[in-house]
Amino acid sequence: MDDQLDDMDLRILGVLQRRGRMSNADLADKVHLSPSACHRRVQRLEKEGFIKDYVALLDPRAMGYPTIVFVEITLSGQADELLAAFEREVSLVPEVLECHLMAGKADYILKVVARDTDDFARVHRQKLASLPGVLGMQSSFALRTVFKTTALPT
């Protein structure tokens, strides 16, 4: 953890990453700080890059994407140009929510959403299989999400 963060900063970050839409007055009350001091701290945390962005987290099921698939990708090589080309192109596939470069069996692991298994088959065939350098893919379907969070430990 960064030495620039004190206990109050950590409390602010902890609250914001669980309820980012609350007003500054509510946040200040929750962390026991004056609204003006809280606002200054939040602005500093944004400026210094600790707070990256504010987003609305959508429910995949409500949006028609109840199927979550984790796809292990093996590439035909490890050249920087191939990795860069793959990363550039995979970032353009809207069904891919996450892409992680891995150490181990797979080169990349993707988190993909789909409307159903037929929709995933289409994404697999039309989009993933045509990505630069793809040699092999292994897909695992999530049966149920036990829990999910975007909140980092503070």
TrEMBL record:
It comes from the Bacteria. CDD domains: HTH_ARSR. Pfam families: AsnC_trans_reg, HTH_24. Residues 5-66 form the HTH asnC-type domain. SMART domains: HTH_ASNC. Keywords: DNA-binding, Transcription, Transcription regulation. InterPro entries: ArsR-like_HTH, AsnC-type_HTH_dom, Tscrpt_reg_AsnC-like, Tscrpt_reg_AsnC/Lrp_C. This is Lrp/AsnC family transcriptional regulator.
